Automatic annotation (TrEMBL):
GO terms for cellular component: membrane. The chain crosses the membrane at residues 36-57, 142-162, 169-190. The keyword Membrane applies. GO terms for biological process: lipid A biosynthetic process. The lineage of its organism: Bacteria, Bacillati, Actinomycetota, Actinomycetes, Kitasatosporales. Gene3D superfamilies: 3.60.21.10. It comes from Streptomyces collinus (strain DSM 40733 / Tue 365). This is Integral membrane protein.
C-alpha cells in the first residue's frame, strides 16, 4: 500500500472538516437584523422628542382682540380647539380632526385695548375682522415655532439616543413630516362652524353669558369670524367685572324651554331647576315624567316647590308616577298636566302629551310592554293629527317612553321624552325630531347603586317666537353624587346650520295615524 505524505494528509483533513462559510440556521436567525424594531425605536424617539420640543418652546403669546392669549399645539387623539378662560372654565370646539389640539389660554385682559373697546362701543362692529387677523397671525407664528420645536426636540433626543448625527437628522426630518401631515389633516377637516356649537365647562352660572342665546342662522360666509368675535367679546365682558358676572340678556326673538325628566325624588333637582330658570330666563319648564319613585300619597309633599320655580310647569306621567300623583299636581298653581293627547298653549308654545300607560314603581315589566307604549303613542299621534286638521297644530309633543314618542312621527315638529336616563336626539323617518332627556335627578337613589354616580342632565331648548320651531339647544350636564363638574354644550339642528336649506317641517306619513 502506497504511503501518503504527512503534509498531504493534513491538507486533505483540513479540506474535509473545514467549517462551512455559512452559519447554522439557528445562528443565522439569531443574528439577522430586525428592521421593524429599529423603525419602532426611531418612531418612539421622533414622537417623544417632538412632544418635548412642543412642551419646552412651542408656546406663542398673541393678542386676540382685547385679550392676551398663549397658543400652543398639544398631542391629541381627537384634535379640536380648547380655549381656557381661567378661572371660569374652558370652551371646547370640534374645529378639526388631527393628532394635535390647539390650546388657547386667555391670560389677561389688556387694559388699554379693553378701555378703548368699552369707551367706543362702535368699534365692536369691526372687532370680527380684528379677531380674525389676530388669530391668523397667531396661528402662523405658532406653526413656524412648532416646526422649529419638533425638529429641535426630535434631533436632540435622536442624538442623545443614537449618538449619530445622521440618525438625529433623520429623526428631525420625520418629526417635521409628521407635523406637516398633521397640519394637512387639520386643514382638510377644518370646521369653522364648530364655533357655533361650543362645549362650556366650569362655572355653570356664567354659561348663558358665554355661550350666548340662539338666533336664526342665515347663510353667510363670515359666520366663523362673527361668532369668534362674539366669544371674545363675551370673555371681555367677564373680565371687565370685579364681583359679579354679566347679566344674561336673552334674545327677544326666542322662547326658552327647560326640559327635565326622571327626577326620581331627588330634592336637589328643585334648586338646580330654579337656578337654570333664573340664569337662562326660561319661559316654560317641561317635565317628561318619573318625577316620583313609588307614586304613593306620602311622596306628594315632594312636589310642593314646583309653583315657586319661576316658570309654568308642563308635566306628563311616567311609569313611576301614579294617578294619585297626577291628581295632586292638577291642584298645584302654575302646573299644567297633559294626558290623553290634550293640547294646551303655555308660554307661547302649544304642547300636547300623554301619560305613560304602565305603572311599574317596583321596576317590574308590565304585561303590556312595548305594545302598550305603541298604543299610547298612536292615541297621541291621532290627537295631534286632529289638532292640525282643526287649524291649531301642536308645536311640541311629550311622552315619557321613547317607544310611545316615536309613534308621533310626521304629526309634530318635535317630541320630548325621557325614561332611559341618558340624553339623545334623532330625526325620525317622516321628519319629527325626537329629543330624549337624561335624568335631572341623577337617577335618584339609584345613583348609589353604580360604581360612578349618574350625571344630572337637563336641556335648554330655543324656539323661534314667530315660527315656533326649534333653533338650538344647550345640553347641560352636572356631576352626580359627590361631584362638582359642569358642562354645557350647544347644538344646532342640521337645517339651521349655516348654508343649510331650512326644513319645511315634518311631512305626513303615507297613511294617516290610527285613531
Amino acid at each position: 500500500m502506497a504511503r501518503v505524505p504527512v503534509a498531504a494528509l493534513d491538507r486533505m483533513l483540513k479540506r474535509r472538516f473545514r467549517p462551512s462559510a455559512r452559519p447554522l440556521p439557528a445562528l443565522e436567525l439569531a443574528e439577522r437584523p430586525r428592521p421593524w424594531l429599529n423603525a419602532l425605536g426611531l418612531a418612539a424617539v421622533v414622537l417623544v422628542g417632538a412632544w418635548l420640543g412642543l412642551l419646552v418652546v412651542g408656546d406663542v403669546r398673541a393678542p386676540v382682540g382685547p385679550v392676551n392669549t398663549t397658543m400652543a399645539l398639544r398631542p391629541s387623539l381627537t384634535g379640536g380647539t380648547k380655549i381656557n378662560v381661567s378661572p371660569l372654565g374652558a370652551l371646547t370646539l370640534d374645529s378639526h380632526v388631527a393628532p394635535v389640539r390647539l390650546d388657547v389660554n386667555v391670560d389677561q385682559l389688556d387694559p388699554l385695548r379693553s378701555a378703548a373697546l368699552v369707551d367706543h362701543p362702535e368699534r365692536l362692529s369691526g372687532l370680527q375682522d380684528e379677531v380674525a387677523r389676530d388669530v391668523e397671525h397667531g396661528t402662523l407664528d405658532l406653526a413656524v415655532r412648532s416646526s422649529v420645536a419638533v425638529v429641535a426636540g426630535a434631533c436632540a433626543l435622536g442624538l442623545a439616543v443614537y449618538r449619530r448625527p445622521g440618525r438625529a437628522l433623520a429623526a428631525g426630518g420625520l418629526a417635521l413630516t409628521l407635523l406637516a401631515a398633521s397640519g394637512a389633516t387639520a386643514y382638510a377637516t377644518w370646521n369653522p362652524r364648530s364655533v357655533l356649537e361650543p362645549r362650556f365647562s366650569g362655572l355653570l352660572s356664567s354659561a348663558p353669558s358665554v355661550v350666548g342665546n340662539a338666533r336664526s342662522i342665515v347663510t353667510e360666509f363670515d359666520v366663523y369670524q362673527k361668532e369668534l368675535a362674539r366669544l371674545v367679546t363675551n370673555v371681555t365682558k367677564l373680565y371687565d367685572v370685579t364681583s359679579t358676572l354679566p347679566a344674561y340678556q336673552p334674545d327677544p326673538s326666542t322662547l326658552r324651554v327647560l326640559h327635565v325628566s326622571d327626577i326620581h325624588l331627588n330634592p336637589a333637582s328643585w334648586k338646580i331647576i330654579a337656578s337654570l330658570v333664573r340664569q337662562y330666563k326660561v319661559d316654560v319648564i317641561v317635565d317628561s315624567g318619573d318625577t316620583m319613585d313609588h307614586g304613593t300619597a306620602a311622596e306628594n309633599g315632594f312636589l310642593d316647590p314646583i309653583p315657586d320655580l319661576g316658570a309654568p310647569y308642563v308635566w306628563v306621567r311616567g311609569n313611576h308616577d301614579s294617578r294619585v300623583t297626577q291628581r295632586y299636581l292638577r291642584h298645584l298653581k302654575n302646573v299644567h298636566v297633559l294626558d290623553d293627547g290634550r293640547a294646551r298653549t303655555v308660554g307661547g308654545l302649544r304642547f300636547a302629551g300623554i301619560g305613560d300607560p304602565q305603572f311599574t314603581p317596583d321596576r317590574s315589566q308590565a304585561r303590556g310592554g312595548d305594545a302598550a307604549e305603541r298604543l299610547a303613542g298612536d292615541r297621541l299621534a291621532s290627537a295631534l293629527h286632529d289638532q292640525r286638521a282643526a287649524g291649531t297644530p301642536v308645536d311640541v309633543a311629550i311622552a315619557h317612553e321613547p317607544v310611545a314618542a316615536r309613534e308621533t312621527d310626521g304629526e309634530v315638529p318635535l317630541v320630548l321624552c325621557g325614561h332611559l336616563h341618558h340624553e339623545g336626539t334623532e330625526v325620525l323617518k317622516y321628519g319629527t325630531r325626537l329629543r330624549m332627556e337624561g335624568s335631572t335627578g341623577g337617577s335618584g337613589l339609584r345613583a348609589v347603586e353604580r360604581r360612578y354616580p349618574a350625571p344630572i342632565e337637563a336641556s335648554i331648548l330655543y324656539f323661534d317666537r314667530d315660527t315656533r320651531r326649534l333653533q338650538a339647544w344647550d345640553a347641560i350636564q352636572l356631576g352626580g353624587l359627590g361631584l362638582t363638574t359642569a358642562e354645557v354644550s350647544r347644538h344646532l339642528p342640521e337645517e339651521n346650520l349655516p348654508g343649510a336649506t331650512p326644513s319645511p317641517g315634518p311631512t305626513s306619513p303615507s297613511s294617516p295615524a290610527s285613531p
